[in-house]
Amino acid sequence: MTTEIEDLASLPQLKFIPPRRTPPPQHLADLGAKGAKELCSTHGISGYRVDQVGRHWYSRLSSDFDSYTDLPSQTRSEIAKLLLPTLLNEVRTITCDNGTTAKTLWKLHDGALIESVLMRYRDRSTVCISSQAGCGMACPFCATGQGGLTRNLSVGEIVCQVQRAAADMEHGAMSGGPGKLSNVVFMGMGEPLANYNTILTAIRRMIDPSPNGLGLSARGITVSTVGLVPRIRQLADEGIPVTLAVSLHAPDDELRNELVPVNQRWNLREVLDAAWYYTRQTKRRVSIEYAMIRDINDQEWRGDRLGRLLKGHLAHVNLIPLNPTPGSKWTASRPEDEQKFVEAIERHGVPVTVRDTRGREIDGACGQLAAKES
Ligand code: SAH
Known about the structure:
The chain is α/β, with parallel strands linked by helices. It has helices spanning 4-9, 28-42, 48-59, 76-83, 143-147, 155-170, 196-207, 229-236, 253-259, 268-282, 300-310, 335-346, 368-373; strands at 89-96, 101-107, 113-120, 125-128, 132-134, 149-152, 183-186, 221-225, 243-247, 286-292, 315-321, 352-354.
């Protein structure tokens, strides 16, 4: 006689049972105003308290509950803790570039690790955030890709990264004095379009005005993807003018299959067609990300081919000098090769920029800090 367990295990789809994780606590950002008001009512708390808390957290960018003085002092901390549970525990923050770059490693409620990086420039400040703990896309040059996917982040865990960065800017924690957070890029750990509904709600919380959101501009938010074609098309139809970045890294399927393995599912042609659909629907320029890897994808003929593919489309190329990951045999391109590559693209009239390499000395590349910790 077989036991019940054996019967279950014989079903192929149940052979892999993922570890059961308790979901992160529900946060104001997860609940939204309506959900938060419902939760409050089950605790005998009036709905307008949600708006008060929202103004403190999203607009004043304060997590100091003692300063929420319009809440009754006896129940202040109960209300605040109910709506604003701690989701991100700071493990360590490392700064460089004279205090204008700060990278933080966060531990989540279940021990999962993620990173975010705040970068201040003369005319703007950008936070690079994670959408997943780990990543399932397995790009061989990326530190996060090597560890696999741990789990999706919740709306709260994503929005808290942005709120913390906005608070650090507002309260002058970055060198240069108080300022405003202007940009958010989904270029930390994870594939944002593989956590689609969550990042979409998180984006709404970023752009909604006070007291329901951070009031950021949608145009200042960039969603970067390996090229999950159906999701790119879906995002194009949402009517939210966020910037799309596509991690191309090769202008031919043969090499892209290796550098971005999901290309074996949706090839270059399909990815670019989806990108042009995005430009048609949103009228927004797509950013083509291309990590420059010495003698792998940086040949002049590949630059020419890339220029040819993008010519006449609403696109610009963002070259990223490879940030070598520990143990990798790959490194960044030689300056003279990079220059020839840039010129080959420009000959087709396609705009190119080379991204600055902020945070190199603090393991700035995606996933490096978390990989070291674990
Ligand atoms: N999964 C998404 C977003 C996260 S990575 C994506 O792939 O677009 C953000 C960008 O950093 C991507 O273009 C990615 O390919 C690039 N990247 C990852 N590791 C890198 C490294 N070691 N050096 C340079 N760029 C890297």
